[in-house]
Amino acid sequence: YRDICEKSSKNTKNGKAKDLRLRIEHFQIVNVSDISRINIPTQRNIQTAKEGSCIFVSMQPAHATSDMEYAEKRLGKARTKGAYAWHSILKEGAKGIAFGSDWPTVGKVPPLLGIYAGITRKDLKGNPKGGWQPQECISRQQVLRGYTYDAAFAAFRENHYGRLKENMFADFVVLDRDIVDAKQVPDSDIWKAQILGTFVGGKQVW
After folding, report:
1. Residue-by-residue DSSP string for the chain
2. pLDDT in tens, 10-62
3. Is the dihedral of CA 153, 157, 163, 166 positive or negative?
4. To 5 degrees, how large is the angle CA 123–CA 197–CA 170?
5. How many other C-beta atoms are found inside a 10 Å radius of the C-beta of residue 174?
6. What does the pLDDT read at residue 46?
7. pTM: predicted TM-score of the whole model, two decimal places
8. Band of the pLDDT at 7, cuts 50, 70, 90?
């Protein structure tokens, strides 16, 4: 991926980086020094985008809580410092992170499990205490955005999907609780939310 980062910096026009949105899937365990390469210049921030930073990253939050059981044993503590570094990536100025379930390659992984993992970095039993590398936890709003707007943005579809807005596709689910409200729904109950309805194109399909 270093070659991609370096070569993408040469894709410029009039001294500005092109909005290519090249994407690296499974940007999960990387060298900490490479995190600073991640940024996505757009018409809004293209003037301040760092040189050589035209990469968008994609990850599956649920993989973090499955990998944490053996990652350090197999790779060592030093090499896993850049594991699922969501907070660090966003802090470096990335436009966002595209989240997904990785379905169907790893079976059925409900997005709610990924949302829970992104917020807590814990397994469903609440381990480890405080979360695995808790400094990389991100907010509920940011995780939800990763599954919606950021995923659409990564595919140049942000004007069609990812938000509930006039003239956009109304693809959404209705839950039995507000998982963004930490006062009503504690972290431990996020994954327990039940789906009351599924809408595609504004029409209820379930």
Report:
1. -HHHHHHHTT-EETTEE----EEEET--B--GGGGGG-B---TTTTTTPPTT--EEEEE-HHHHHHHTTTHHHHH-TGGGTTBT-HHHHHHTT-S-EEE---TTBTB---HHHHHHHHHH---TT--STT-SSGGG---HHHHHHHHTHHHHHHTT-TTTSSS--TTS---EEEESS-TT-TTTS-GGGGGG--EEEEEETTEE--
2. 665 555 566 777 888 999 999 998 888 776 554 444 444 444 445 788 999 99
3. positive
4. 100
5. 11
6. 43
7. 0.86
8. low
- What's the token pair of residue 135? 């400094």
**Structural tokens at position 34:** 């490479």
